[in-house]
Design brief:
alpha/beta, 48% helix, 8% strand, single chain, six-stranded mixed β-sheet
Length: 967
């Protein structure tokens, strides 16, 4: 069968994979690029192109039409299509549908020069689209002044529903319809730019003076809003430069070209881009993880001109404040009336924004705080059309509005579903502080180095508290309350609830009489304040309200004295209204006060707690708050009416945080605090309710475990809701509750992949899993465990017979901590540490720990950096192992020295069956050592050596000599 014939048949066989590769991203760019190449090579006529690109037709339908047409055209068209596909698709994405028999030569025709300018628009189409992309306005200007284009023609090309590359294609299509002279104008324009060496980038171009004046005003406003970080005291401010500490930034999707953490400049940059046609970057992270502070830092650096210099104008928005916007707005009104008002020539400035979208940056902080969940059902494309703010925002994010403008959005990860993710160019995860970040933050917070050293020394002796400090907001509280921390008191904080009670006590005691500082008197003196702020927070959580007017304060009885306690601050607003509203210092603080109200209020119906912990909350759908909080506030006139309408979409994640605090507040060691505010019988009743809800939620998860497939172990794939229940149990700090929760768990393998597990969650998991009746395999792949999380997991290591920690940013320090207990367990059979940041030093430490292990069967270290030295150390430790069956050192920079050492394992082992050395630097010399060792081992099944430093001739020869080698 010929290669050409194979191409046509392969097109049918791979039809599904090809359509998925071209269309699954939701962007038409890949399909458009393939069409450009086919047009330039003459395989498609303009009429064919028009029959494929039917306006308004589904993307997949257009893709199917193309494949049908190519198959009908014959083998040559199919072969050229595969060449174009290989050129357009990223390497990994095109692998499933590549055709090795045809080289990638899908560019423009060479040798056959076009006889007319109109023909040149076709033959040079791919390069013309690339060069005109984002530069359409200048080309349109040339066509207008030469009389070839009218204003209607220009508007048709400029339609904001088109991406910059689609605008370029539409321009070329319009020009071809205008004839030869119009085509000549465009080609001359492009050639002129090429000849001037400007590459159409207009480096020396200067924006209009009116725009530069507006930029100065905007940057001044942004700088004023960003230069200070409000503290939890509410009365003092820290300069952002003095306190800002970088959190750990990672890409949500693995990228071959990215190694190690990202920098601030990479948030908006091209690094890690998945969908090139999308404009929106998502920065996701847990509540209190530093997302707002990160955006504030970006804003400040832009205003100073030290970062994001490619953007002339930056417009920052808070979704929390947009929540309170009642009237419909257009994009123009959103920018000018809700961000920065131009002093003059507003129309000219707005037209500049429309004409130069690549110079504009929008940021939206706290998408998860919107009352409405993301939806792409109502589409807008006109920037002057008015709509509800959430509709406006959703269309900006998905690119229907202001296509080409870069947008950065922050959100908690659980609030972002597939409907939004398909419109992202990339997602960046903010993982909180590293151990070095905690150290840096504490030292910045305390001007006295001696105090900072004492705080850090204290943290290092309190393992659970150190794990909590991974979260920036908790690290701030702990650092701020250093006197309570160093003073000892009733023991160090163990849970998130402990930390928030510490800050509550800290502020109240600083405003209490000296006599009330002992015992629980501080709370009794300020009980009314707690209830007033608690009711405000409670009703706000129930209605997704985070900014409160004076009327709302009056309704809940909040006084000036309550405000002065420091838990509420004036809401910052860049608009011209300057209304004096207030908000809690942080969303976590609002949830904490809501939980205090639930625990202390005598008005709370028993259904409040049961609905708060309802298992349906673990789904990603919003909980109707009428059923949850509607019966609670009998002191208000119309409690149910306040929780209706749009408030019924209050997000589940806020309720989960509140429920977590309720669990902690009702723990045994805190119950004495509530004696003066709530009868002990009521408190005990609420405790029993919470315990029942947690037990019910856990057992519901266990009931959903499917029976094991024949020959496989029984496995439970936990969802994020399961992790939340674990955290609630940890907050209660009651071993009886933990034991009861796990009493019905009968699995051999517990899988918690992609569950956003960081050090805080690791602490809770270790506390609960140490009560397992039988050891399990614990799989935590693709989370944010890190070195701190590894240390938090140590208490449950005796109950783990396998540990999977792949893709968790673990370094040599994490290996050192793991050795403290983990691999010394006799029952430990499997360790999977692939795709971390382990070097030869970590491998040497691991090897030292493995010398005494007699149970390990599987060891996976692929995708690290152990090199030859690490491989030699591991080989020395494992060469006498009688249990090791499988070893993977794929992609570790192992060379001949490492291969020679690993040959000793093959030579001496009586158990090893598979050795994986793919993607390393092994030459023929190293392979010869492996072959010699295999001659003495008949039990070994395979050695994998794909993609090493071997020629095709060497591969063929070595394969004939030893069939167990796989190249």
């Amino acid at each position: 069968m010929s290669a050409s014939m194979s191409a046509q048949e392969l097109l049918l066989r791979q039809r599904t994979q090809i359509l998925h590769a071209l269309c699954s991203s939701g962007s038409a760019e890949h399909l458009d690029q393939v069409l450009d190449i086919l047009l330039s090579r003459g395989e498609l006529a303009p009429e064919d192109y028009q029959s494929i690109q039917v306006p308004g037709r589904a993307l997949y339908t257009n893709g199917r039409r193309l494949l049908d047409l190519l198959h009908a055209k014959g083998v040559d068209a199919c072969a050229l299509f595969y060449a174009a596909l290989k050129q357009v698709l990223p390497g990994g994405q095109g692998a499933a549908c590549s055709f090795p028999g045809f080289c990638s030569s899908g560019g423009e025709k060479e040798g056959n020069y076009p006889s007319t300018c109109a023909q040149a628009l076709l033959t040079q189409r791919p390069s013309l689209v690339s060069e005109l992309q984002g530069r359409v306005e200048d080309a349109l200007h040339s066509l207008v002044i030469t009389g070839h284009f009218s204003s209607a023609d220009c508007n048709d090309v400029r339609l904001p529903i088109y991406t910059p590359s689609q605008q370029a294609r539409r321009l070329l299509d319009h020009v071809r319809s205008k004839g030869e002279s119009a085509a000549e104008v465009v080609l001359c324009y492009v050639q002129q730019k090429r000849g001037s060496g400007s590459s159409l980038d207009q480096e020396n171009w200067t924006p209009p003076k009116v725009v530069l004046k507006y930029q100065k005003k905007l940057s001044s406003s942004v700088s004023a809003q960003s230069c200070f970080l409000s503290t939890y005291g509410g009365t003092s401010h820290m300069h952002l430069d003095d306190i800002y500490t970088e959190g750990q930034l990672e890409l949500a999707q693995y990228c071959d070209d990215v190694h190690g953490p990202l920098g601030l400049e990479d948030v908006v940059g091209a690094v890690g881009t998945v969908n090139r046609e999308a404009d929106t970057v998502l920065v996701s992270g847990d509540a209190g993880g530093g997302k707002s502070t990160l955006l504030q830092r970006l804003h400040l650096l832009w205003a100073r001109g030290t970062l994001l210099r490619e953007f002339l104008l930056l417009f920052p928005f808070s979704c929390r404040r947009l929540n309170s916007e009642q009237q419909e707005l257009s994009v123009k009104e959103l920018l000018f009336e809700r961000c920065c008002w131009p002093d003059r020539q507003r129309e000219e400035i707005f037209q500049f924004i429309l004409d130069h979208p690549h110079l504009i940056l929008f940021t939206f902080d706290g998408l998860d705080e919107l009352k409405q969940g993301f939806s792409d059902e109502r589409r807008l494309c006109c920037p002057t059309q008015r709509a509800p703010v959430h509709i406006l925002l959703f269309n900006l994010i998905q690119g229907s509005l202001m296509k080409g403008v870069r947008k950065v959005v922050t959100s908690r990860p659980e609030a972002v579903g597939p409907a939004l993710k398909k419109h992202l160019c990339k997602e960046v995860l903010l993982q909180g502080f590293t151990p070095g970040g905690i150290d840096s933050f504490v030292r910045k917070h305390h001007r006295d180095p001696a105090v900072a050293s004492k705080v850090l020394e204290s943290l290092r002796t309190k393992n659970a508290l150190l794990g909590l400090c991974h979260s920036p907001v908790l690290c701030w509280i702990v650092s701020h309350c250093h006197k309570e921390l160093l003073g000892g008191g009733e023991g160090s904080p163990q849970t998130i609830t402990d930390v928030y009670l510490m800050i509550l006590q800290h502020f109240f005691q600083h405003r209490s009489s000296p006599k009330s500082n002992a015992g629980t008197s501080w709370l009794r003196e300020h009980l009314d304040t707690v209830l007033h702020l608690g009711q405000l927070a409670f009703e706000g959580i129930g209605t997704s309200c985070f900014i409160f007017s004076g009327a709302a304060l009056d309704k809940c009885g909040v006084t000036e004295k309550d405000i002065c306690m420091g838990f509420l601050v004036q809401s910052r607003d860049m608009s011209r209204t300057h209304s004096k509203n207030v908000e809690f210092l942080h969303l976590m603080m609002q949830c904490f006060f809501a939980a205090l109200y639930i625990v202390l209020s005598n008005n709370a119906d028993r259904s409040v707690i049961s609905n708060l912990f309802e298992p349906q909350n673990t789904r990603d759908t919003a909980l109707g708050t009428t059923s949850c909080f509607g019966v609670c506030s009998s002191s208000t006139e119309k409690p149910r009416q306040a929780l209706q309408g749009e408030a019924a979409t209050a997000e589940t994640s806020n309720l989960k945080i509140t429920a977590t605090f309720v669990s902690g507040l009702l723990s045994q060691r805190h119950r004495s605090l509530w004696l003066h505010g709530c009868p002990s019988a009521v408190t005990e009743k609420r405790v029993r309710q919470v315990v029942r809800c947690l037990s019910k939620g856990m057992h519901k998860h266990f009931k959903s475990i499917p029976p094991p497939v024949g020959g496989e172990k029984k496995s439970m794939h936990a969802m994020p809701g399961f992790v939340w229940l674990i955290k609630c149990i940890y907050e209660m700090q009651d071993s009886r509750v933990a034991k009861d929760a796990l009493s019905r768990l009968e699995v051999d393998h517990l899988k918690l992949t992609y569950c956003h597990i960081g050090p805080v969650e690791c602490t809770a998991l270790a506390y609960v899993l140490q009560h397992l009746r039988n050891p399990v395999g614990l799989q935590l792949d693709n989370n944010s465990v890190g070195d701190v999380g590894v240390e938090q997991l140590l208490p449950c290591m005796h109950n783990c017979n396998s540990l999977y920690l792949r893709n968790n940013n673990i370094t040599d320090e994490g290996i050192r901590k793991l050795l403290a207990t983990g691999i010394h367990c006799d029952s430990f059979r499997k360790i999977a540490l692939g795709n971390n940041n382990i070097t030869e030093e970590g491998a040497k430490q691991l090897a030292e720990g493995l010398k005494s292990n007699r149970s390990l069967k599987y060891l996976g270290l692929w995708g690290n950096k152990i090199g030859d030295a690490g491989a030699v150390a591991l080989a020395s430790a494992l060469q006498s192992s009688t249990s090791l069956v499988w070893l993977s050192l794929v992609g570790n920079g192992v060379g001949d020295a490492g291969a020679g050492a690993l040959a000793n394992i093959i030579r001496n082992s009586t158990s090893l069956e598979e050795l994986w050395l793919t993607e390393n630097c092994i030459t023929r010399t190293g392979v010869e050592c492996l072959i010699q060792a295999l001659e003495n081992n008949t039990l070994m099944k395979s050695v994998w050596l794909i993609n090493n430093d071997l020629t095709l001739e060497e591969v063929e020869e070595l394969t004939q000599r030893e069939s167990r080698l796989t190249f």
